[in-house]
Amino acid sequence: MIKMRLIRLLKGAGQYVVYQILWQWLSLLVQIVIVWNIAGLIEDAGKQGIRTERILVALGIIIPGLLLRFVCDRLYTAASFRASADVKRILRGRIYQKILRLGPSYREQIGSAELVQMSGEGVEQLETYFGRYLSQFFYALLAPLTLFFVLSPIDLRTATLLLLAVPLIPLVIMLVMLVAKRLLSRYFDIYYGLGDSFLEKLQGMTTLKIYQADRAAADDMDRESERFRKITMKVLTMQLNSTSVMDIIAYGGAAVGIVSALARFASGELSLAGVLMFILLAAEFFLPMRILGSFFHIGMNGMKASDRIFAFLDLPEPEVGKAELGTGNIDIRMEALSFSYEESRPILKGITLELPAQSFVSLVGVSGSGKSTIAGILMGRNRGYGGSLRLNGEELSRVSTESLMNHLTMVGHDSRFFRASVRENLLLAKPEATELEMKEALRKVNLLSFIEAQGGLEMQLASNGSNLSGGQKQRLALARALLHDTPVYIFDEATSNIDAESEEMIMKVIHELTKSRTVLLISHRLANVVGSDNIYMLKDGKIAEAGSHAELMRQAGAYRRLFEEQSQLERFAGGRRDSHA
Ligand SMILES: Nc1ncnc2c1ncn2[C@@H]1O[C@H](COP(=O)(O)OP(=O)(O)OP(=O)(O)O)[C@@H](O)[C@H]1O
């Protein structure tokens, strides 16, 4: 019912939970004093008639008492708010720090939708756990004991009867918990699954529309939503039923206590004031436990949500080193490099290759041979490789992520842009870049005149740069990469799916870069790698051939075959274009 790890995690929130218990308890003590006064007043009125001075004395206690209770309630609410606000702040901070520690590889460990749901609604679920449930748990133990302590001198038998009936409520709660645990696990599995599926379908809406598969996807969503509706109804039914049982115990128990007190009064063993005390306070024995019961379901949701949060916080973190790479050129060497995404399926099977400082090296090979995986390892995205990958003699796993990002820049085939100005998107790469530097980078990729015609650096980009053409987007990505100004550049299919003019332009800039930087080029189009110092041809996670273009052509192996096939195809396509023109 109480999760110690949650409490330990959120030490700061603990003090507010203690305040909540204290304010509730003080409010109960004041209530006892008020009830004791009312009971005494009625008894006195019965014996001596209604006297003004007696009423004034009673009001002198009751009115300040009510005011004090009002203040206690306000202070309780304030402490509850502080406890839950702290929880949200602390937990979201922990999740964020964890994402940072997981580094660029975090998306391999958790889906975006689950992460959003967990840090959004998952954390919200804990608000009630800390803001209400936790303090109520302790107060529900404290209140009946306090009442027993006050009422037992008046009538021990009735007070004991009331005290003994209270544990029936936690008993029901525990029975419900047995069912609820499994049910809630399934509920959250379905809930997070629905979120993942919804996000995926939303992101792939264009593809779904192109293949007119949106109707089928909507039907899928309907089915998943229906499953979620059903499990939600099951959870609600379980909660409602247990609430009803708890109500019966709470009000039934209070009624039994009142009947017992009345019987004692009828037999003359209890005074009028005494019986009135029991009538007015009997329900208070049960109400805190009953309220705990209603918070319990929300508390359980919170605890279940925290299971997910803890599972995320416990994810193994890649060992990130602290070594710095220093300034200057970078020399990269891989020796017997191996890697697999899933244990049973090795992707890289002992790659040995060199990228000497300021060299131009290319990786080619059929789709799925492992080229991007190598780029991913170099960029710190794919952690846990075997063999060795050294940068200036320093093992990559020992290099700090920050240092790595300061020395390597990667441009992929689908660079991401944010809905902001061109200036803001460029400044991501170099926050201190001057206007002149940004314009120079745009000029190098032949984009300056276009951007200037659209309002200059203030031109607003739509989400992910969707108001640019594919070629313009890639050229802008290259300009941003140039501003980053690092000793190593990796281009992973940076020219695929773009117009020939943009491709030529980008390759020109890459060739220019090779004069002063270490460049790793991954390309399907072998014409682009001809000028490389060294070309590695990958096959099934191994290096099948290696050498300069001329050497590989002399070897007359797979590289030469592929090169000649592509040249022929391009000549054919060129010929067709000319004849159409
Ligand atoms: N995140 C991942 N999880 C599991 N398997 C993956 C993941 N990324 C890639 N793979 C697998 O690793 C293998 C190599 O993929 P990789 O992207 O490195 O190949 P590639 O040579 O770059 O291919 P392409 O030229 O088509 O981009 C593929 O069989 C792919 O299925």
Structural class by SSE content = alpha/beta
Order of helices and strands: HHHHHHHHHEEEHEEHEHHHHEHEEEHH
- What proportion strand? 5-15%
Low-pLDDT regions: none
Keywords: ATP-binding, Cell membrane, Membrane, Nucleotide-binding, Transmembrane, Transmembrane helix, Transport
GO molecular function: ABC-type transporter activity; ATP binding; ATP hydrolysis activity; ATPase-coupled lipid transmembrane transporter activity
Membrane topology: Multi-pass membrane protein
Main location: membrane
Record the SSE blueprint.
Elements: H1 4-9, H2 11-48, H3 52-102, H4 112-151, H5 156-165, H6 168-203, H7 205-210, H8 214-266, H9 272-313, E1 332-342, E2 345-355, E3 360-365, H10 371-378, E4 386-391, E5 394-395, H11 401-407, E6 408-411, H12 422-427, H13 435-444, H14 448-453, H15 470-484, E7 488-492, H16 500-513, E8 518-522, E9 534-539, E10 542-547, H17 549-555, H18 558-580
Parallel strand pairs: 3-8, 3-9, 6-7, 7-8
Antiparallel strand pairs: 1-2, 1-4, 4-5, 9-10
Helix pairs in contact: 2-3, 2-4, 2-9, 3-4, 4-5, 4-6, 4-9, 5-8, 5-9, 6-8, 6-9, 8-9, 13-15, 15-16
This protein binds adenosine-5'-triphosphate.
